[in-house]
Write a structure and sequence with these properties.
single chain; 477 residues; alpha+beta; 3-stranded antiparallel sheet; 40% helix
Length: 477
């Protein structure tokens, strides 16, 4: 979710607590949240209509400049696969009034025509995502016919192949190969980095529907706020703004893809210099490889009013706090003045050895670097997470800690995870698979190293995560 969304929700929560904490909800009639519907303009822009109000509200990501996201928002929005895969596609079509199964099948089967706008192809891909998330097996026939079309769009082809595999209960098809060797990317990491994180997105499970969770959580927050408000407050501008942002977060991937193209990230490396301690702003360096057009991004950013500079084969955007975004075709970097001197390939070899190349996510933390005092006794120096691509594989985490005593403490805490989850699940049948998987987890300690091996919960992981998110926010209710 973009940073502006969370800021609005935070404001709503603050206002509600300050202004309405003395009121008792049971003393007022319950006011339901107004329905939020989407409307699609000819040029593909999405807007929201609240209840019967004729006003159209722009969604988050439609017109806000890139800099409004901040570096954290950029990481969350762009560096996790292709943009369209992060849409809550079923919710988007339902709010457009096109959510019936027949509507989705018709959208998938509609072949492109001369003069079609670019967003039409994106909606076709999103319809494929929607039937996949719904588990709509009758869509298998139309999905297969798309694969047989002459010269199909490659992004549509990949989405259909993934959806067919998911609907048949088969492993996901092979994901995109990563072009750049890890060591060549690590060579660009600044010398002063204290922490380095490598994520091979192309070898991870697809992020289809991942924005469903932030949207559901944001709407749960709005619903909690609504319990303390009357009808006039709910109709107010500040509440409507927060409601549009919470709902619109599920469509942010489409809004950005319409502006920038459906860019995809295959690998990302993040380096951080925490400074003398954790009380100052850290310096962050990011490099990524993937698929996108520098010219398309430059044109789109200029349309949004963002100042874009040309620097050889790259464009440069000032994103605030002294950070610069540098974009080339298929590669980019986020750096900061004074934190840019690369270590080179020779020095990167030791770093590559610390970052397990077999794992999709790997972390290195310099043992001499500052560490938060609150968790100093749990000082980690390395971590490598192997994420399964099918439900039959296991999640594997290899960790290395500063001392054997720390490793022993971590192993002991992990042993009590099953009991902790039991207290969280109570009599919730839908959470039982999580407890069962935790009970089967194996923990092995060898000196400063602790390895974890756990099966995946035999359940719909998206629904399971949704239950945990909402349950956690509501205090277990």
């Amino acid at each position: 979710m973009a940073a502006t969304t969370w800021r609005r929700v935070t404001i709503l929560l603050t206002l509600s607590c300050a202004g309405f904490s003395s009121l008792r909800a049971q003393d007022r009639p319950k006011v339901e949240l107004p329905a939020v519907r989407f409307e699609l303009a000819v040029d593909g822009e999405l807007t929201a209509r609240i209840g019967d109000d004729k006003t159209l509200h722009p969604l988050i990501g439609t017109a806000a400049p890139l800099r409004s996201l901040g570096s954290g928002g950029i990481l969350a929005t762009f560096f996790s696969g292709d943009l369209l895969s992060k849409c809550d596609a079923p919710d988007l079509f339902e709010r457009l009034g096109r959510g019936a199964d027949t509507d989705l099948l018709r959208a998938i089967g509609r072949k492109p025509e001369p003069g079609d706008a670019a967003h039409e192809g994106m909606l076709r891909i999103l319809a494929v995502r929607a039937v996949q998330l719904r588990g709509l097996k009758p869509a298998l026939g139309v999905l297969q016919r798309v694969l047989e079309e002459p010269e199909p769009d490659q992004e549509l082809l990949a989405a259909c192949s993934e959806a067919i595999a998911a609907l048949k209960g088969e492993p996901a098809p092979s994901l995109a190969a990563i072009r750049a060797p890890l060591i060549s990317m690590l060579a660009t990491v600044p010398i002063g980095a204290d922490i380095v994180l490598s994520i091979d997105v192309a070898r991870m499970p697809r992020g289809t529907g991942v924005l469903r969770l932030p949207r559901i959580l944001a709407q749960a927050q709005m619903d909690r706020v609504r319990e303390h408000l009357d009808a006039d407050a709910i109709a107010s501008e500040w509440f409507v703004s927060g409601l549009v942002s919470s709902v619109g977060s599920g469509a942010a991937g489409y809004c950005f893809a319409r502006q920038l193209g459906n860019l995809r990230v295959d690998r990302i490396v993040v380096a951080v210099n925490v400074g003398a301690d954790f009380n100052e702003q850290p310096e962050v360096f990011v490099t990524a490889e993937g698929s996108w057009s520098r010219a398309r991004i430059a044109a789109s950013l200029r349309d949004l009013g963002v100042t874009v500079e040309e620097a050889g084969d790259a464009i440069v955007v000032d994103i605030g706090d002294g950070q610069k975004l540098r974009v080339r075709d298929g590669s980019l970097a986020v750096d900061k003045d004074g934190f840019r001197e690369p270590r080179g390939e020779e020095a990167a070899r030791d770093l590559a050895a610390a970052l397990d190349g077999e794992a999709q996510i790997a972390l290195w933390w310099d043992a001499k670097a500052p560490y938060p005092e609150e968790i100093e006794r749990f000082r980690i120096t390395r971590g490598a997470l192997t994420v399964p691509l099918s439900m039959d594989e296991h999640l594997r985490l290899t960790t290395q800690w500063l001392t054997p005593a720390t490793a022993s403490a971590v192993a002991g805490l992990a042993g009590g995870l099953g009991r902790l989850l039991e207290t969280m699940t109570d009599d919730k049948d839908e959470l039982v698979p999580l407890t069962e998987a935790a009970a089967e987890m194996k923990v092995v300690r060898d000196g400063v190293r602790v390895d974890f091996d756990a099966p995946l919960p035999q359940a719909d992981l998206l629904q399971l995560a949704q239950e945990l998110f909402v349950r956690g926010y509501s205090g277990g209710k």
